[in-house]
Amino acid sequence: MIEFASATGVRLASLTLGCCALALTAIVPLQVACAQTPSVSQTLDDAHRYVTAPLRWDKDDWTVFGGTLAVIAASHELDSKTRDHFASANGVVLDGKDLHSTRDALPAAAIVAGTWLYAYSIDDSNGFVEGWNMLEAAGLSTATAYALKFAAGRQRPNESTSADRWFSGGDSFPSLHATAAFAIGTVLAESGNDRWRWVRRGLGYGIAVGTAYRRLDGNAHWLSDTVAGAAIGLSTANFVLQRSQDHRLARGMSVMPLDGGMMLSWTMPLN
Q1: For residue 40, what are the CA distances in angstroms to 84, 137, 161, 182, 233?
Q2: Crossing angle of helices 223-250 and 11-27, rounded to 10°
């Protein structure tokens, strides 16, 4: 049994969530997205491959999946303690109301809007691709989160004092806000060149962790809800970034200098 020290105060859940998020980041490899003009057909193909991805998993993929489930299960053991901390500090009432849903969604939405506006202002094709990847990652991860919410039926901490009220018609697991924030934040963090990587990662992951923390502070979710959301968002963003790179490499023209001239080549997939 893991015990919290009472002196940690308000840092309790943020540190726990941060450690879980870092653990998930360590077991989910990330790829940097490269410029490729998005299309509806590519997005539909990505959605199909996303849904059917487990059919192509190898041993390493299943190991990562098992490790992620272990992190979520470990955080579940801390659900009641985390909830009690925030409930005692904020005097939460079991009324089932989520008063800060819109507020907690704004930071992630601002990332997407800011990315598109900046790309438009300087006419940057890479920025448009990055914004598209954010929307795709958010859309796919949100669909996954909704499906799991329906299947789990877990009651929120503002509806029940028990962390084990599953299949009770609730919609607590996983946290949709955390899912979308980590999907969008990861795309921001791992896109672009390495010159501003530390800034991107600080902003992207910082907003994602901050969003998850606010969901705990508002008593809208259990700790394991936010950790599961982080896992979905991270892995979905990884998938989208990898697919973006695959699309870029699928077709292309290259010029190679040779003695006395040059060679022009065109590559395209045969399957």
Answers
A1: 46, 14, 45, 24, 22
A2: 30
- C-alpha–C-alpha distance, residues 135 and 132, integer Å: 5
The whole-angstrom separation of Cα 140 and Cα 146 is 10
CA dihedral 179, 74, 154, 107 (to 10 degrees): -20
Count of domains forming the chain: 1
Residue 1's pLDDT band (cuts 50, 70, 90):
very low
Evaluate whether residue 143 is within a structural domain: yes
**198-257 pLDDT, tens digit each:** 999 999 999 999 999 999 999 999 999 999 999 999 999 999 999 888 776 655 545 555
Q: Rounded to an integer, what distance in angstroms lies between the CA atom of residue 232 and that of residue 183?
A: 8
Predicted TM-score (pTM) of this structure: 0.80
User: Is residue 159 one of the residues assigned to a domain?
Assistant: yes
User: How buried is 136 (Cβ within 10 angstroms: 0-12 exposed, 13-18 middle, 19+ buried)?
Assistant: buried
Q: Could you tell me the residue range of the domain that residue 61 belongs to?
A: 10-267
Least confident of 85-94, 176-185, 222-231, 259-268: 259-268
Does residue 4 fall inside a structural domain?
no
Of the candidates 254, 250, 258, the one whose C-alpha atom is nearest the C-alpha of residue 266 is: 254
Q: Which of 55, 59, 61, 51 is nearest to 29 (CA)?
A: 61
